[in-house]
Specification:
mainly alpha; 39 helices; extended
């Protein structure tokens, strides 16, 4: 036992830190890495340089292992021996019981005397100062009792000290403050978990410097393992500084976070919270309406269903309105009514609930519109606009209520005031959702909505593509022909030239199929609403650009895109000047391809075929166009469409246009291009007789 040497502790028992120990540690076994960007580090250790000033006085009594007499009564045993705690060395306590407490105390005393003597030589203290300092540090009688209790409570045995632990102990007792910091990092503090730098290499380097067992305690082995990496001066500098500098690691972690994704999630959460009341009211009303329908259909369980419906109606009044004496009287009458009188008693209560429901819903929507008009921040504005758009997309019945609350003018004013492109995109999308009724379109044109769209599309250099895409979608929506009584829009004629030019340019430059479809739809709607736009399209070769775009996509082209292109060509052929221009292009082959039946029978294919045959019937008035149809084998296709109703989706309108096209081709190219039988049945008789012969309708036309 004479050769036994105790491994000194690497614990820094600072007095100010001990006083706050229970406050820092949430539980006896908790541990904090100290370098999280959201947590407060438990150890506030200032970085020091490796070169210690000569006159620096270091209190080795705090650094070395404290006497047990000073710890036994002040701190609980469980807190002292917490697992993974950076305050207690795990090497202090082992399972072997072969060393006495006296040896431990004697060894600690020898080490303390030796370090004090070396410190006195370095700092130049006088002997009297050292004696006075030693007398102050002598244990008192109370501390001796604590030491005795500590020796009984904690195992005072150590396992045999290895060579690497002895080297580490010598390193921890050096006069350099950096050694203490390294021991703390190695013993208790963990490295950052989310870093882009090799953490294993750094930890092994630390073990190599201390003589640890990771790489045998020699730096030459480290150089032998990774010579290319360590030859770099920058890597060596980084490995030297990474021990006590983690700023770059925190910055790397912060830069890896997606700010846009966090913002989007926050806006989505705020939008959900903003529209929660309206969603709950709608959900509650849908349940009540379903119960009322079930009550009228299920005559067998009228009593329970009526009582349940009445109770749910009362719950609605309690939540969103007030229970008046009239409502209470009707509810009591339903509870006392017989089975035969339940239906007559429940109907007035349900009617009263319907009127209350609409009143409550309008009140909540007005609150949302007021929040849109006076937002407290840009984030709040984003959330409100997103919530309104989501509500109107899911419940189309709310659009009318929002429109009556003057939401369209507010959105247009915000479009002019907002400077951010993403914010304007949200507002334009909300306007596209709202402008699906005639009243909303009238409000849109009243507050110069066309001018806002024109400015957005004209300033293509300063407006990004997503914003222009939303503006095109809004234009296609407000000019849609399926909106009732939507034949013209105020201010459209003044901006039609700019709009056609911007849409044509956008269609030629975009690579997105959705944007191309929106441009084609907007151009087709403009040609339907304003015939003057056809002249601008001829001048800008709009039809040629769209046909080339469709040709480049080939079979992958959407049927909806083909429908809009066919609609545009059909509208352009209504102008006599445009027919010759379209004939010189590859319009005839494209229209014949549009006539092919896919066999699916979708509504879009029906509309596509109808628009294509109308365009062909108008173009075939010209001999050159009729000749192209004959050369491309279009006559056989047209005859087949007349004789077989499946080829035209059983559409009689397509039959009339096909018969008219065949008659124009025969007039331009002669009867030789068609067989004698087809001439006798499809061309020579009157158009009405041919139609009645192949029509799918059973009625007779007189």
């Amino acid at each position: 036992m004479s050769d036994f040497k105790r491994s000194p502790s690497k614990v820094w028992w600072a007095s100010d830190f001990l006083d706050r120990r229970e406050e820092v540690s949430g539980s006896p076994g908790s541990q904090d890495s100290g370098f999280s960007d959201t947590e407060t580090p438990p150890l506030q250790i200032q970085k020091t340089t490796t070169n210690k000033p000569e006159n620096l006085s270091i209190n080795y009594q705090e650094k070395s292992t404290p006497e047990k007499s000073r710890l036994g009564a002040d701190f609980p045993r469980k807190s002292l021996f917490a697992k993974h705690s950076p305050k207690v060395s795990r090497n202090l306590f082992n399972a072997k019981r072969c060393v006495k407490d006296a040896l431990n105390h004697q060894y600690a005393k020898d080490v303390e005397d030796k370090t004090r003597s070396s410190e006195r030589v370095e700092s130049g203290r006088s002997l009297e100062e050292e004696v006075l300092r030693a007398s102050r540090s002598l244990p008192t009688r109370e501390e001796a009792k604590r030491a005795e209790f500590f020796n009984r409570s904690a195992p005072a045995v150590l396992e045999e000290v290895r060579e690497d632990e002895a080297e580490c102990a010598d390193f921890s007792l050096s006069s350099d403050c950096e050694s203490e910091l390294e021991c703390l990092f190695n013993g208790g503090l963990d490295s950052p978990k989310h870093t882009s730098t090799p953490k294993n290499l750094v930890s092994r380097m630390r073990g190599a410097r201390r003589g640890g067992s990771s790489w045998g305690g020699h730096e030459d082995r480290l150089h032998h393992r990774s010579p290319e990496l360590l030859k770099n001066d920058a890597v060596q500098k980084w490995m030297h500084e990474i021990r006590h500098q983690y700023d770059q690691e925190c910055m790397t972690t912060l830069q890896a976070k997606s700010i846009a994704a966090d913002l989007h999630q926050k806006v989505a959460n705020m939008a959900t919270y903003t529209t929660t009341n309206i969603k709950n009211i709608i959900s509650h009303s849908e349940c009540l309406q379903e119960e009322f329908k079930t009550l009228n259909s299920e005559k067998k369980y009228v009593g329970p269903l009526a009582q349940s419906l009445a109770g749910n109606i009362m719950d609605f009044f309690k939540l969103y309105s007030e229970v008046t004496p009239k409502i209470t009287k009707q509810y009591d009458a339903i509870r006392k009514a017989t089975r035969d009188d339940l239906l007559t008693q429940i109907s007035p209560l349900f009617t009263l609930w319907e009127s209350t429901f609409h009143t409550v819903l309008e009140k909540e929507i007005k609150k949302l519109v007021e929040r849109l008009e006076n937002p407290c921040s840009e984030l709040d504005l984003r959330a409100t606009v997103t919530g309104i758009t989501s509500l109107c997309l899911r419940h189309e019945s709310l659009i009318e209520i929002f429109t009556k609350s003057e939401v369209v003018p507010i959105l247009l004013i915000l479009c002019e005031k907002c400077e951010g492109s993403s914010m304007r995109s949200l507002l334009l999308r909300a306007l596209s959702t709202m402008c699906s009724t005639t009243f909303a379109v009238r409000q849109f044109e009243k507050y110069s909505g066309i001018q806002i769209i024109s400015e957005t599309l004209t300033e293509d250099l300063s407006r990004p593509e997503p914003e222009r895409s939303e503006a095109v979608a809004l234009l296609a929506q407000v000019t849609a022909p399926w909106i009732e009584d939507n034949h013209s829009i105020k201010g459209l004629a003044d901006h039609s030239r700019k709009l056609v030019k911007s849409l044509t340019k956008f269609a030629s430059t975009t690579k997105c199929c959705q944007n191309l479809l929106l441009c084609a739809a907007a151009l087709a709607n403009l040609s339907t609403m304003d015939t003057k736009c056809v002249k601008y399209m001829l001048h800008l070769n709009t039809a040629e650009i769209l046909l080339n775009s469709v040709n480049r996509r080939g079979p992958c082209a959407s049927v909806y895109l083909l429908e809009q292109v066919a609609t545009l060509v059909a509208n352009m052929t209504s102008v006599e000047v445009a027919r010759q221009h379209l004939t010189k292009l590859s319009t005839i082959p494209a229209l014949l391809c549009f006539l092919k039946c896919g066999g699916v029978g979708e509504e879009a294919e029906k509309r596509l075929q109808q628009k294509a045959i109308i365009a062909l019937s108008r173009l075939c008035s010209d001999k050159e166009a009729a000749t192209q149809v004959v050369e491309l084998g279009g006559v056989e296709k047209l005859v087949k469409m007349c004789r077989e109703k499946e080829e035209r989706f059983s559409n009689d309108a397509v039959l009339v246009a096909t018969l008219a096209t065949l008659r124009k081709i025969v007039d331009a190219c002669g009867k030789d291009v068609i067989s004698v039988e087809d001439v006798q049945e499809l061309v020579e008789p009157k158009l009405l007789d041919s139609f009645l012969a192949y029509s799918t309708q059973s009625e007779s036309y007189v």
